[in-house]
Amino acid sequence: MRSTPYPSTPYVPGRTDRAAPVGRTELLARLERVLLGRGRALLTGPPGVGKTEVAQAAADQATARGETVVWLAPQPADHDMPGAAAAALVASVPAFALDGLPGPQRDAVAVLCREAAALESGWDPIALRLALAGVLRTLAERSPVLLVVDDAQRIDADSADLLRFALHLAPSALRVVAVETPAPYAGGGADSGGAPMPLWVASEADVLLVPPLQADEMAELLVHHRLPSRLAGRIHRASGGNPRLALAVGRSLADSRTPVHHAEALPLSGRARDVARRMLAPASAPVRATLLLAALALRPTTALLRRAGRPTAEAELAAAERAGLISLTEDGTVAFTAGLLPSTLVHDTCWTERSRGHAALAAVADDPVEAVRHRALANDVPDEELAAEVAEAADTARRRGNSALAAELALLAAETTPPGLGRRRLQRLVDAAEEAARAARADLAMRAAADLLARDATPADRVRVRLAVLDTAGQGLTDLDEIYVHAMEDSEGEPALRAAVQLRLAVKYVLADGDPVRSRTAAVESAALAMSVGDRHTAAQALTQQARIDRVLGSPDAERTLAEARALEMTDRPLGVRNTAQILTIRHALFDDRLAEARDQLYALLPLVERRGPVEDAIELFRTLAEVEARRGQCAAALAHAGRSLALTLEAGLSPGPAWYALALAETAGGSFARAAGYARRSVRASEEEGDHVFLSRSLYALGRVQLVTGDVAGALETLRRVRDAESAQCAVDPSMLRWHEELAEALLAGDAPEEAQALLADVGPVAERLGRTTVLLGCDRVYALCLAAGGKTDEAVDLLVETADRFAGHGLVLEQGRCLIALARVERRRRRRSAAQAAMQAAAAVFERAGAVPWLGLTAESPSPADSAAVPAAGSALSRLTEAELRLARLVGEGASNQEAAARLYLSVKTVEARLTRIYQKLDVRSRAQLATALSGLATPSR
């Protein structure tokens, strides 16, 4: 029996430092409303879903309000021990709660707690009822009380009866949260505690179901536990959103030495399997047999399982649904709540039993593709006739658009081929690997490659299966150097194969190694080799990669090369759009701020890709659409497209780094700066896990921009300097692809480094002008105007900001226009032109309101920052000569902060503070902190 308030850590009175459980904010708010209203709530849900964590969070909130929290947690053995829970409750309350009890009630309590010998008739039930009610009433008279009953289904019958009576008489100041895991099967299980003993009638409490986590919430949970967030989609699919199972899967992956980007089926052994087995353990033998058939079927339904030999399937599936193992739709479709449950069932079942199950399903399947699959899986003897049927079924699945099933069947056809047909088996293994690559099934590609590489295959076949493995690695191209080396060796003397290998190397060099120069060299060689053998498809891909790198390097040949690739592509007509010249042409339009053109081309492609293309193509289009719409200021559309991109990414089990980057941009435009920073940080982490240099820079840029806009100058400087260093290391020249220059320059200015800010602008300006990047120059003009204002040239700054805002509007960049207007308002305040400042801020608000740019609109409604207020002295103009960074320091010191305290508050070194104070004293002509405080005392905050 456990009666401490927190079962996982010792209870500390007043402790409120626990973070709210991931993904439970809305549920906690609802629980809070229920407790403050009706005062009774029941948290229910399957094991491991996080019910106890929600109750703990509610207890923390109660403690923060000054309430008394009592935690009661019966153990499994307590269920059959009369009075165990009631005794534990009495033992956990303070002594004063028992002091006022009448004698008979105290005697009854003493008997219950084994402090006195029991009477022949046992304890006095009436006295005990009154005693327990009195204890709770006394507690509630001192302060409001929250009683948490964890694992309420384990309460013994006598204690449940006592508690029902006591709670019925309890005052409204006593609120109760019960946490219950429903007994899944009739008669309970080993740990179910039997049928639950309700503490109240149903109408007295609200029942709150604790749902599984969504895929995006799963990523946050993994980050919180320092587990690989880039696998959030696959882990969510394996766990069904159950936090306990998800963490077990994540830790199994962390313990595994296998590269996790190859682990489509997560994981094969370890603690995750053990958690899944515990979830399945209460299932009776009939229920387990029916679940196994469902796990073997492609599309399990109640009718299919009944026809396959389970006449009582309805009752058995209903029991499994109560246990939280499956869900049933109205038409009888069966879906497991977690992907690891069916894989564990199959994994733990012998081949003979699996074979019988497949044979039964083959006899009743109404789809010939499914029937062939089951017949092959039920067969353990190689059979060419059967293998040919399976290969034909794979072609049918491919035509239907079911690439995952096609890949599975292609590999099954190869494995069913008799050993005597060695060449045919090898060809089918190559086909299976390439089919798996198209389906993004890394596990199947690896199986096919391992089988082929263990045989006497030709160099060409070895290259093809290795390329298939590389193509399933997604963003994670690290730890694959050995595959590239072997592919290069085997492609010697084969121009077509060498061109394909060089193309993959070109992608690796820029993505994983951050070396665009080497990437371009490989792309050029790939294109030349492909053209020499008339391979237009590979040549178009190689030229596309070359054009992409030429743009990064600032080469004037980028557009010409891209046009060549586009021409080849028009004749070759590739099946997809990802990594094609067509999508790169659209992205170049995005970089050039030809946004209407980019948007129109994307929307023209979208129906075709959604109907017939692979999921990676749809993800690419939605992500690019989000970037385009965010840049255009179409904020609602940007958020919708970014959310769709992320949902598809997580559903497909791909790395979410790129989708999180797009969502960070969309949230920055029209959602929430806080959420934008959160998504950007997730993208940073996922990109670091993948070794993806490209999206690491992008996500750092997105984060630094939000930090700058929200006033975290020190954080923005650190983040944006990382971007600068990474882009410099990658020899990036074109400033239009990632516009960090203007953000870093503004951060430097705000961080009291105006010379460095102006030097950065002076460096990027000529490059942007040479390349014709007009809107990049506009961004630099905005920051240069701020530099002018900081140098006291406010009239010039105002003129430049007005002109820049108008030009941004002419390009359709409304968010940039509004940002210029905010800067204009601040400069006008600096000039003490309150009416002009108010007009500029109102104009900015109107721009943001029309665009739906919620976070930016919030900036126009905020009161002036301390630096802005300090910049407008009520008497004299000497303070206007200070930069915003100097004004922040002056105000801190004027309020009494020491140099060390100011340095800590501003994230500066003490030496920097001392140097900055010297400049402040010189500008204000003061000699002491007292004089500085006097100079600051006349400040007035202007109205907008």
TrEMBL record:
Pfam hit, one: AAA_16
Domain called HTH luxR-type: residue spans: 875-940
Keyword list, A-Z: ATP-binding, Nucleotide-binding
Matching InterPro entries: AAA+_ATPase, AAA_16, P-loop_NTPase, Sig_transdc_resp-reg_C-effctor, TPR-like_helical_dom_sf, Tscrpt_reg_LuxR_C, WH-like_DNA-bd_sf
GO biological process, any: regulation of DNA-templated transcription
SMART domains: AAA, HTH_LUXR
Cellular component GO terms held in the UniProt record: cytoplasm
Gene3D superfamilies per UniProt: P-loop containing nucleotide triphosphate hydrolases, Tetratricopeptide repeat domain, Winged helix-like DNA-binding domain superfamily/Winged helix DNA-binding domain
An example Gene Ontology molecular-function term: ATP binding
Domain of life: Bacteria
PANTHER family, per database record: TESTICULAR SOLUBLE ADENYLYL CYCLASE, TRANSCRIPTIONAL ACTIVATOR DOMAIN
Name listed for the protein in its UniProt record: Transcriptional regulator
